Structure prediction request, 188 residues.
Amino acid sequence: MSKTLRTLCLLAVVLVACSGMKPTVFVNKQYNFNFLEKVAVVPFENLSTDQGAGARITHIFLTELLAAESFDIAEPEEVSKVTQKYIGSGGSALTRDQITEINKTLGVQGIILGSVNETSGARAGGSATIEVTVDARMVETDSGQTVWSATNTEGGRGFLASLFGTGDKSEAETARKCVRRLIQTLVK
Prediction:
């Protein structure tokens, strides 16, 4: 095999290894997202073993959504007050009547519900590997239908990090990247 061909093969392997996973996304093609003016973000459910992960990811999600400047956001304290009587301090199940009530109280066209499925850290060869998985979905308040849903996982030990021992990111950096990629599928 020629030197040029070996170099091209190595480059192809590196590019594939660096590409990572893409979020899994559902978007209701019939829904007109231009009608969304204000949304409520319900505190994310924590399904991980990391206490406090739900609250941390919810705060990151709110900040990243505000930074995207696509929607007005209902005040988090108001959202917590209204939704806590329906789903307690965690969970993502709301009935059609509860969604209508939230809409009346907060004046939102969409409700974003989510869960933190995993926040884990492992040590390998003296460096930490952080992985974060977040699910989020938006329910339109008039119909009660899910109009957007996405799942994303970020982190893990990439090819270059494994090969050269580089690329360690903190849990906060990994969580921000995970949430940012989720939001990019919503506010393109």
